[in-house]
Amino acid sequence: MTTTTEAASTEAASTEAGRRDAGDPRGGRFDSSLGLIMLLLVVVVAQGPVRRALSAPVAQSWMTVFTAVVLQALPFLVLGVLLSALIAVFVPPSFFARALPRRPAVAVPVAGVAGAVLPGCECASVPVAGALVRRGVTPAAALAFLLSAPAINPIVLTATAVAFPRQPQMVFARFVASLFVACAMGWLWQRLGRADWLRPPDRPAFHGHGKGAAFWASVRHDVMHAGGFLVVGAMAAATLKAVVPASWLRGAADDPVVSILALAVLAVLLSICSEADAFVAASLSQFSLTARLAFLVVGPMIDLKLFAMQTGTFGRGFALRFAPATFVLAVLVSTLVGAVLL
């Protein structure tokens, strides 16, 4: 009898597990369809309070800023992702190795300038820089390319010109400051960097994929990844404009030092794709042009996602040294260039 009872209990448990695995409602599984239905029911029941909340002036202001930033930035984001995928998949890394001079001191500025003609966001620049190191390019030149490509490429500079139509000097200031930081960090690594601080990448970015599959995989990844950060950045900009008291923002914006540091740190935390960051910076109109320049220079060079990617590609020892040095130099150079050009 005991054996029969245990067998029956085991069979019942197996049946219950099978129902859950098969999505049987009797198995108590909470799937996405049920969640969507419950969410719709809540919205229908609470439509009165929701409608009143959305009609409030603060909510309307928030939605206006959020929509404007996303719609302005999205075409540049998509174009940049497509061009970045084309370069990463169809241009062999050996091309860059052959194009760069052998002397590191000369290869650094050449690699920095090369970033101005090769569209791509920071998400693509890290694997490309890793491929350059694997193919024998001096790390100093690869790092200069890593910093310059997402900051001064044609897509980013065009987006900056569209975002700041009445301040064309912002485009030139961004180009000069970003290129100088990229070359200075390359030379600094050539002078002070040690081989054991940098772990060379051990595998290609698209190993095991056909070119077509790799291209679309890169496009899908970058659109979802960079698009998500764009939405987060637009939400943060809209919140700053609509929710944060104006006196707080004026207090930070009125102090030259605090405003520059605040937007530099904000660029690190928001981790916005470089094709879209100019529109977020333009919406922070209460801050000076120099502070917004710091936002535009720091963001494509060091943020949370870049730190994670640099750690995964070159090792934690490299990222812990390279990221803080890049941040400090980018803030200092942005301040000096802003004082002269803006």
Folded structure, characterized:
- The protein has 342 residues and is mostly helical.
- It has 17 helices and no strands.
- Helix 9 packs parallel to helix 14 and helix 13 packs parallel to helix 15.
- The protein is globular, with a radius of gyration of 25 Å.
Question: What's the structural blueprint in terms of helices and strands?
Answer:
Elements: H1 2-21, H2 32-45, H3 47-54, H4 57-90, H5 93-99, H6 104-114, H7 122-134, H8 139-152, H9 154-163, H10 169-192, H11 211-242, H12 246-254, H13 256-270, H14 277-283, H15 289-298, H16 304-314, H17 316-341
Helix pairs in contact: 4-9, 4-11, 4-14, 6-8, 6-10, 7-8, 7-16, 8-10, 9-10, 9-14, 10-15, 10-17, 11-14, 13-15, 14-15, 15-17, 16-17
Fraction in beta strands: under 5%
Total count of strands:
0
Instruction: Give the helix/strand class.
Output: mainly alpha
Overall mean pLDDT: 79
Distance between the termini: 89 Å
Biased composition (Low complexity): 1-16
Keywords: Cell membrane, Membrane, Transmembrane, Transmembrane helix
Family: Belongs to the UPF0718 family.
Transmembrane segments: 33-50, 62-91, 140-164, 171-189, 223-244, 256-272, 318-341
Features:
globular, disordered N terminus, mainly alpha, 0% strand, 342 residues, 17 helices
The gist of it:
The protein has about 350 residues and is an all-alpha fold. Helix content is about 75%, strand content about 0%. Residues about 1-10 and about 15-30 have low confidence and may be disordered.
